[in-house]
Amino acid sequence: MARRRVDHLLIGGGLAAANCARWLREEGAEGPVLLVGREPDPPYNRPPLTKGYLQGKESREDALFRPDEWWGEQDIELMTRTSVMKLDPRERVATLSTKDEIEFGTALVATGANVRRLRLDGCDLDGIHYMRALANSDAIKAAAQAGERAVVIGGSYIGTEVSASLTAAHGVSCSMVMQEDVTLEPFYGKEVGGYFHGVLAEHGVEIHGGDEVERFEGSDGKVRRVITKGGLELDCDFVVVGVGVMPDVTLARSAGLELGDAGGVKCSAELESSVPGVFAAGDICEYDSPVHGRPMRIEHWDVAFNQGKTAALNMLGRGVEHDVIPYFFSDLADWTSMEYVGPGSGDVVVRGSIEEGEFCAFYVDEGRVTAALSVGRSGDLEHASRFISSRAEVDRGALADLGTDLASL
Ligand SMILES: Cc1cc2nc3c(=O)[nH]c(=O)nc-3n(C[C@H](O)[C@H](O)[C@H](O)COP(=O)(O)OP(=O)(O)OC[C@H]3O[C@@H](n4cnc5c(N)ncnc54)[C@H](O)[C@@H]3O)c2cc1C
Questions:
Q1: Which of 86, 94, 137, 327 has its Cα between 20 and 30 A from that of 169?
Q2: Cα 390 to Cα 96: distance, rounded to the nearest angstrom
Q3: Which H or E run includes 111?
Q4: How many whole angstroms separate alpha carbon 407 and alpha carbon 232?
Q5: The pTM is what?
Q6: What are phi and psi of 234, to 5 degrees?
């Protein structure tokens, strides 16, 4: 067992930790930086796993956060296939699965999220896949090349993107089963979610809303059929489940870091946890958002990316608040794509035409814009971000009127 010291210990080999490492160096950190992640791959971007990588258009190298040689060039020590087993944040010591003990000056906890698993009859059959890591996307791609019919469970962004990619790139017949009536409805409402629902249906995805899986049936140990509570019997060659994630706070909890109401690591606006010098970022970070005026925990690529930067600055003592408005993007094959700033809720005010697939939906609560979703109107999001951060009242008629220059509001 070796004991050694680093200036900055970054726990979790995902995007938040990787971008934190990058910004530590860009902002002048000179001492040892160690990034410890339990996956076999160096840090990579997850969005391609349901999109270009699954479709076979992007390679593993395309998905990497940085090429392999970059870590050495930056003098950042990268330990893959290694877990932090124990964290003593007050003594500032971590114990790794290699039994090494690492003393640190500051630490980032960025352990991400784990998929929610379905515990139903037949759930252990082969051919039931989840989607989080490169290996999951590889396994689903292999199943798509060997099979013809898939059941996709869940109508959120994993379910919708996977269905689109399997249909468009692999010619797989997809049936989706979801609790909500309309895809993406819990995030964007029926009207806007209905647009994406329509696009999927138009391209042949069979969507079963208002239903849920009761059990899986199989033969020879392999899944062959999905039985729903609504009485459907859907034959399939494989299944993909996308029913949400839970922040992985196993290490943070055992380390005694305070957790928030949304189940993440409770952090200040500077992303510092309840123990000074220990920060959190990405899917596990529940921070006091200066933009929203309340605690937030958000599972978006852009949030993990930007929080990694904010954490790095604060690990170097800069004292900056994380005041970036969260941004999200999603593609359904090359059929359509969307961008979103928020999160927020309220009545939907549409600028443009949902039917024609070119619109910006503003979410307006008590006269104020809280979020906006664009399909083909990216420019409107800049104005939406301004409305969100200013919290000023905006006239609904003017938002909807294509003749109004949003810059004038
Ligand atoms: C398939 C997929 C597609 C997505 N598409 C989009 C998209 O289109 N747009 C968008 O905005 N967002 C998307 N997201 C969400 C976005 O990718 C995540 O929000 C982001 O990756 C979170 O980064 P993170 O660093 O917080 O966590 P993660 O990427 O989960 O990384 C955390 C890492 O920490 C490791 N770890 C955990 N515990 C330990 C420990 N004790 N010791 C060492 N390592 C540990 C984990 O194994 C994991 O590798 C997608 C997510 C997935 C899964």
A1: 327
A2: 45
A3: none
A4: 51
A5: 0.97
A6: -105, 110
DSSP states of 170-211 as a string?
A: H--EEEEE-SSSSTTHHHHHHHHHHHHHHHHHHTT-EEE-S-
User: What gap in Å lies between CA 300 and CA 287, rounded to an integer?
Assistant: 14
Q: What is the mean pLDDT of residues 348-370?
A: 97
The closest of 274, 272, 269, 270 to 258, measured between CA atoms, is: 274
330 lines ligand 1 (CB under 6 A): yes
Here the tokens at position 80 are 């893959």
What are 132-185's pLDDT values in tens digits? 999 999 999 999 999 999 999 999 999 999 999 999 999 999 999 999 999 999
| Tens of pLDDT, residues 201-232 | 999 999 999 999 999 999 999 999 999 999 99
- The pLDDT tens digits of the residues spanning 20-49 come to 999 999 999 999 999 999 999 999 999 999
pLDDT > 80? residue 1 = no
| Count of CB atoms situated within 10 Å of the CB of 342 | 23
* DSSP category for residue 272: B
- 285 in contact with ligand 1, CB cutoff 6 A: no
CA–CA dist 307, 321 (Å, integer): 10
Mutation to probe ligand 1, out of 10, 41, 54, 111 (largest number of atoms < 8 A from CB): 111
Q: Is the separation of the CB atoms in 248 and 112 below 8 Å?
A: yes
For residue 285, give both structure tokens: 């970070």
pLDDT band for position 392 (cuts 50, 70, 90): confident
Strand partners, 129: 240
- Cβ(10) – ligand 1 distance below 6 Å: no
Of 46, 129, 285, 309, the one to substitute when testing ligand 1's pocket (max ligand atoms within 8 A of C-beta) is 46
Host H or E run for residue 155: none
Residues 131 and 23: their CA atoms lie apart, in Å, by 29
Distance CA 229, CA 5 (A): 55
Instruction: Scan for tokens 């209905």, then name that residue.
Output: 194
Q: Which two tokens stand for residue 254?
A: 């055992």
Q: Cα–Cα distance between 177 and 180 in angstroms, integer? A: 9
Q: Tell me how far apart the 2 most distant CA atoms of the chain are, in Å.
A: 69
The rounded mean pLDDT for the chain is 97
